[in-house]
Structures are given as structure tokens and as C-alpha cells.
């Protein structure tokens, strides 16, 4: 299989070959090389940022509605090519084609469509002050660096590019070194949709290239999707230049199932919240708290349904559960599973699996202090925990440094909202899980991050306010 792009980087409106270290792209299902790329050299990173800085003022000077039209055109092109793009996403990530066809580029198209449509509404405020008045202008930040994770590479690129570009920013995007292909397609599509050259650029590379972007003198904002340890480094580096940041980081989110929950829906949600994309989702509800009255029935039904999972070739439309993105990640997940067993938790189903595959894995008899309960595993591993009452579960659910997401299953309307109001999480669901429509702000609290993606709220994180006082009368001075 060959997925070799025209060149590794995309700078100033065209493909450019990287001059840094080699970057081999492998299809996670077979391990075969599907593209041989090169990282950007540090000079190329600086060049991409300079090109973006040069292109940005003219782009920002365009009428917002004209900028918006470019984004909505790009969304239409993505939809026309969804099949081909989804196949590439599957080759890059190993995720089943039945997922990538509906969840990856489609979500990216929705972001481009949403922010494109928002363009004409991006206004300031008029503030009456008696005779005088003031107004605000919402202005671009300048050059935004986007740095992505490997689980939703094209969606992440679109979620960052769409609000940044519609506000008149330019962007230099670095995809994860594991999944570098989708962002290059986005760059091509944006040019085809009418984006001026230099406004969206792609550089490839590992952490060093990300670090160089974060401290480049032309960069005004860094938006990272990644782990907490990387987030700490990027936030600290950005602080030195007083750069804005958005941090979409990891999680260990609670999914709380009360006795009165609809059993079948709760089990479905727990499956989606743990095993979709082979569990490689930041907002996953990996601590499933089960109230004592429903616990056994829930686990029986879960085990029954998980047995039917179809694992295999991700390009087969019937496949529901694909490989992990890389052998290194698969080994990390296996080590986490083994640590859970050694700590005394037992497996309801699943386990280490073989090669690139880790089957849906469910732990029972876990306790709050075990690593399988405390640490993000980023694989298909669910930890179930028993609980008795509401206060107890809220306390235990909040007993984590993370705060990305949370879910509650109950038929009791007041309890649902009461519990959600007490949970320390940025993105919450009642009687469903992991739905992230573009209309709804998405992001975390505590160590899970800063800022929000999606919705009009994202605009605030890609813009700054200018206040303008307008004097309408004479100016008095004391002498
Ligand atoms: P990672 O932190 O290892 O890498 C993320 C990105 O940061 C990569 O592109 C990497 O090259 C880059 N990077 C690494 N070191 C850097 C540095 N010093 N400076 C700048 N950039 C650097 O994360 P990952 O393994 O690719 O992704 C998995 C993590 O991402 C999980 O923790 C997951 O929860 C999180 N994630 C969060 C969200 C969200 O929206 N909150 C979404 C997806 C994934």
C-alpha cells in the first residue's frame, strides 16, 4: 500500500520536502511502510512561521464573510472526497473504516462549516459613555501554532484551523509524528478552496519540531492536543513569550451509572466511552462507577455484548475494533493491564491481546488507588468500580488530577443535573457519552487543559480584544 504524499511539508501554498530526520509512516494493521517522510529542519520551521507571519495581515484584512466562504468551500470538498480521505485516515491511524467514514473528516468538515458560517457574526461591542463612546474590535492574534495528537489527526487539524483561520490568523500545524498524512491533505484542500498561500502550513516532526514552533518569535499562540506531560512543557515554553495557549490534554474521566439507569443504554455508552477508536480517545469514561443495585446486571450484559466485537482488518467495513496506532503504544497498554492484574484487579474480559491488537478489556474488583484507576491508559481498558451513594461517588469521581469529561446515567432528572454540577470536568454528558458536536464547547479543567475548542467559545481563544475610546468633545487638561 502506498500513501506517499507529494512532499513531507506544505509551506507557502505548496508541497516542500523536509530536510530533517527520516519519518517512516506505517499502516498499524500490517506494520508495512506506506510513506517515507522527512521531518522539517529547524530552519524550515522558522521559514514556515515567517511565511505565515507574512501572509497573515492580508488574510486578516479580508471581509470576514469572504474568509468564511473559503472554509465552507473546504468543507464541501472534504465531503465530496470523504471516502478517499477516510481510507487515508484508516491507513494512517489503523482505525476501522466504519469509524473514519463518519467520525474523522466529517467532524473536520463540520468545524470548517460551522466557523465559516460564523464569520459574518464576528463583531465587537459598542459601549455608550454619555457623549463619548467606546467600541471593541475582536482581532486576530497573528500566527497560531497547532500541534496534534495521533488519535484524530485530521479532525484535530480542522478543529484548530477552522476557528484560527476564520478570525484572520495564519497557522503552522504540526501533526503527530505517528499520523502525519491527513494534515497535508487539509493544506491542499484549503488552497483549492481559495485560501491564500502561506496562511496554513504544515511541518512534520517529533517533539523537537513542536518545541521549536512553541518558541518561534513569529508565533503568538500555541494550541496543543496531547498528553499532560507534553502540555506542561508547551505551556511553560509558551509562557516565556507571553503566548496564548489552548491545551487539550488527557483524562481519566468518570462515567457514573446509578441503579435506576436504563441498563442497555448505559452499557452502550460504556462501550462507546471505552472502546471506540480502540480506546484512543482523550475524553473516554474509563472509570465506570456502578451503583451496587445495577452492578452485576451491568457487568453481565457488558461481557455478553463485548464478546460479539469484530476485530480485524480496519479496511473491512465489518471491522469494529482495529489495532493500536503503534507497537510501542500497544506495549504501553499491555504493561498497564499487567499492572492492574498484579495490583489485584481481575479481568471480566479482554487482556493483553496479540501484536497490534488489544481487545476490549474490562477490570472488576479495582480500587481507587490502583494505577488502572488513576492513570490515563489511552487504550481499550475500562476500570469498573462499585459505589453505594451519591456523595460518595461524587467525591471519588473528583479525586483525580484530570478534569476533561464526565458522564451520568440516571432516570432521575434532578439527580442528573445535581451530580453534573458537582463534578469537576469541562465536558459532561447525561444519559449518553462522548458526543462532541461542533456546536458545543469542548475542553477540560484541572490538568486536562485550558481553553475550549468548537462552538463560538473557541473564537475567544483565537482572538484578542482591542478597546477603542472615542472622544466626542473637547479635551480638558489641568494646566
Ligand atoms: P503527546 O503528548 O505525546 O504528543 C502530542 C503532540 O505533541 C505530538 O505532535 C508531539 O510530537 C508533540 N510534542 C511532544 N513533545 C513536545 C514538546 N516538548 N513541545 C512541543 N510539542 C511536543 O500525545 P500523543 O501520545 O500524541 O496523544 C495522546 C494524548 O493526547 C493523550 O494523553 C490524550 O488524552 C491526549 N488527547 C487529548 C485530546 C483533547 O482534546 N483533550 C484529544 C486527543 C488526545
Shape: globular
Total helices: the number is 16
The total strand number stands at 20
Share of helix, binned: 25-40%
The structure class reads alpha/beta
* Ends apart, CA distance between termini: 80 Å
- Provide the residue-averaged pLDDT: 98
- Main-sheet strand order equals 14-15-16-13-12-17-18
Low-confidence stretches: none
Query: Mind summarizing the main beta sheet?
Result: 7 strands, mixed
Strand content: 15-25%
Bound molecules: nicotinamide-adenine-dinucleotide
C-alpha Rg (nearest Å): 23 Å
In short:
The chain is α/β, with parallel strands linked by helices and 479 residues long. It is built from 16 helices and 20 strands. The chain has a seven-stranded mixed sheet, sandwiched between helices.
Q: Topology of this structure?
A:
Blueprint: E1 9-11, E2 14-16, E3 22-26, E4 33-38, H1 42-61, H2 64-80, H3 82-93, H4 97-103, H5 105-118, E5 126-129, E6 132-140, E7 143-147, H6 153-166, E8 170-174, H7 181-192, E9 200-202, H8 207-214, E10 221-225, H9 228-240, E11 244-248, E12 254-257, H10 263-275, E13 287-291, H11 292-306, H12 327-342, E14 346-349, E15 361-364, H13 371-374, E16 381-387, H14 390-398, E17 405-409, H15 413-422, E18 427-430, E19 449-450, H16 457-460, E20 463-470
Parallel strand pairs: 7-8, 7-10, 8-9, 10-11, 12-13, 12-17, 13-16, 15-16, 17-18
Antiparallel strand pairs: 1-2, 3-4, 5-6, 6-20, 11-19, 14-15
Helix pairs in contact: 2-5, 2-7, 3-4, 5-6, 6-7, 10-11
The structure holds nicotinamide-adenine-dinucleotide.
Residues 147-151, 174, 176-177, 206-207, 210-211, 214, 225-227, 230, 233-234, 248-251, 282, 376, 378, 404, 444, 449 line the site of nicotinamide-adenine-dinucleotide (NAD).
